[in-house]
Amino acid sequence: MTPARRADSVVRPQPPVLAVLPSGRRVPISTVGTTPAGLLAVPEDIDVAGWWRGGSRLGDPFGSILVAAHVDSRTQGLGPFAELLSVEPGTRVRVESDRLRQTFEVESRRLVPQGTLVDDSWIFDASGDLRLTLVTCAPPYDSARGGYQNLAVVTALPLGPPETP
């Protein structure tokens, strides 16, 4: 007979509240939804990232934990997610919630054209293997065409299960 599993040993998924980027920069994360146009409602403050509440949470066994932030702002300058434009595979990102933390290793960085993500559902899909998906705007910038023309999408895989700090 195997011993019963203690109820407090079960991981209860939680929304992320902090990302620690490869540079060590700590970026607070707020919970966001979508705009009426169906776009992710990224926080205006470039020093704050947004976790899409329709995606996976820290501690979920599968799906995309989608976190996005502005790369820069005319009034606020360059944001911390600008480092995603040059992040390399193998670097690490840590994500924390109120009671959990998990380290992820960057697997890839891709440029995806701005616009509908219907053909790129892997970015936000709550199914499939667990992954952290970090998103920010990427060059080229063309004011006549509405701003940045690409998204930098960084996919990172967990190095292990979530831990309690």
Automatic annotation (TrEMBL):
This is Class F sortase. Pfam families: Sortase. The keyword Repeat does not apply. It comes from the Bacteria. Keywords: Hydrolase. The keyword Hydrolase applies. Gene3D superfamilies: Sortase.
